[in-house]
Design brief:
By secondary structure, this protein is mainly α. Helices cover 46% and strands 2% of the residues. The chain has a two-stranded antiparallel ribbon. The protein has a two-stranded antiparallel sheet with strand order 3-4. A hairpin with a 3-residue loop joins strand 3 and strand 4. It comes from Linnemannia gamsii. It is a multi-pass membrane protein. This is Phosphatidic acid phosphatase type 2/haloperoxidase domain-containing protein.
Length: 338
C-alpha cells in the first residue's frame, strides 16, 4: 500500500467496482426518468372552496440550489479536500480509497433514494400549483367524494410527475452522502478526536462540510420544493451510505489509531501498528502524528504536558499506557499504545 501501482495493476483490482458503479448509475438514471409508480389520491377543496391541505398549495418557485449543483458540490468539494490533504499525506492509495469511497457513497445513496421516489414518492409543497386541478374532469372518490387522482390535473405533465416524487429529498441525500464522507475523512487526517488536545480550528474544519450539507438541505424548505421530513429522510440515507462507504475503504471510523489507514483489497489489515506503513499517513503533525513513532506512543510521551502541566500531574508515558487488549478479531495490542 506504500507504492503507486501501474495503471494495469490498478485497473485489475478496480475494474469490478468501475463496472458496478456504471451499472448502478445507469439503473439510477433509468428509475429517475421513469414515471411515478404509485397512483396517489389527494383532496383539493371542501364544498365551501377552502383548500383541504394548504401544505400542498405553495407557489412554484425557482430552486435556490438546483439538483445538478447539489450533486456537483457533493462530489467536487470532498475530492478537493482529499487532494489538499495530500500536501502532507502523499499517498496514491489514500487518494484512491478516498475517491472510490466517496463514489460508493454518492452512487449508492442516489440509487437508494430514486427507488424510494419512484415507488413511494409523495406530494411536493407546490403540487396543487403545478397540478392546476379541475375537479369537473372526474368524479371524486372516498368519503364525500373528496379525493381525486392526477387525471384532474391540467398542468405540465413533466412537472406533475416531478411534483409526485417529493420523498425523499435528492438534494439532501447527495449533500449528506458527500459531505459526511468528507467529515469522516478530515477527522481521520486531522486527528480531531484522538489522543491529544487539538486546536479549535480543526473542529471548525471538520464540521464545515456538515454545515454545508445542512444548508443545502434546509434551502429546500425555503423554496418549498420539499417538506421537512423529505429532507430528514434524505439526510439519514446519505449519512448511512457515507459511514458505510468510509468503513469499507478505511480501517476504522472512530478508532483514532487506524481510521486514517486505507484498506487493501486482498490483504487483511491486522490492526497492529507495526504492520502498516501508513501509520504516519495523516495531515496533522501535532503530538507526534505524521510518523510511526507518534502513533505508537513513543518519542514525545515525556514532553506531552511539559508546556502546560507540572511534574505532579499525569503525563503520557510507558507506565500509564493502555493495557493489553484485543481488537479486530482478537489481535493483541501493544501495552504502550496511546
Amino acid at each position: 500500500m506504500q507504492t503507486r501501482p501501474k495503471f494495469g495493476q490498478w485497473l485489475k483490482s478496480t475494474w469490478l467496482d468501475i463496472i458496478t458503479m456504471a451499472i448502478m448509475g445507469a439503473v439510477g438514471l433509468g428509475v429517475y426518468m421513469a414515471r411515478p409508480a404509485p397512483s396517489r389520491s389527494f383532496a383539493v377543496t371542501f364544498s365551501d372552496g377552502e383548500v383541504v391541505y394548504p401544505q400542498f398549495a405553495y407557489p412554484l418557485r425557482k430552486e435556490i440550489v438546483p439538483i445538478w449543483l447539489a450533486a456537483f458540490l457533493a462530489a467536487t468539494i470532498p475530492i478537493l479536500g482529499i487532494l489538499i490533504m495530500q500536501i502532507r499525506v502523499r499517498s496514491f492509495w489514500d487518494v484512491n480509497n478516498g475517491i472510490i469511497g466517496l463514489l460508493y457513497s454518492l452512487i449508492s445513496a442516489a440509487v437508494f433514494q430514486v427507488f424510494l421516489k419512484w415507488l413511494i414518492g409523495g406530494l411536493r409543497p407546490h403540487f396543487l400549483e403545478v397540478c392546476q386541478p379541475n375537479t369537473s374532469l372526474a368524479k371524486g372518490n372516498g368519503f364525500q367524494q373528496l379525493y381525486f387522482t392526477r387525471e384532474i390535473c391540467t398542468g405540465d405533465d413533466s412537472q406533475i410527475n416531478d411534483s409526485l416524487e417529493s420523498f425523499p429529498s435528492g438534494h439532501s441525500t447527495a449533500a449528506f452522502a458527500g459531505f459526511v464522507f468528507l467529515y469522516l475523512y478530515l477527522n481521520a487526517k486531522l486527528k480531531v478526536f484522538s489522543n491529544y488536545h487539538p486546536a479549535m480550528w480543526k473542529l471548525i474544519v471538520i464540521y464545515a462540510p456538515v454545515l454545508g450539507a445542512t444548508l443545502i438541505a434546509g434551502a429546500l424548505t425555503i423554496d418549498q420544493f420539499h417538506h421537512w421530513y423529505d429532507v430528514v429522510a434524505g439526510a439519514i440515507i446519505g449519512s448511512v451510505m457515507a459511514f458505510s462507504s468510509y468503513r469499507m475503504t478505511y480501517a476504522a471510523i472512530w478508532d483514532w489509531r487506524y481510521n486514517h489507514i486505507p484498506l487493501n483489497r486482498n490483504v487483511p489489515f491486522p490492526y497492529l501498528p507495526e504492520s502498516s506503513g501508513m501509520m504516519g499517513g495523516v495531515f496533522t503533525r501535532k503530538a507526534g502524528w505524521g510518523n510511526a513513532a507518534g502513533v505508537l506512543g513513543r518519542g514525545n510521551d515525556q514532553s506531552y504536558h511539559d508546556h502546560t502541566q507540572n511534574a505532579n500531574q499525569d503525563t503520557y508515558n510507558t507506565s500509564s499506557a493502555a493495557p493489553l487488549g484485543t481488537v479486530g478479531g482478537g489481535h493483541t495490542q501493544p501495552e504502550n499504545m496511546v
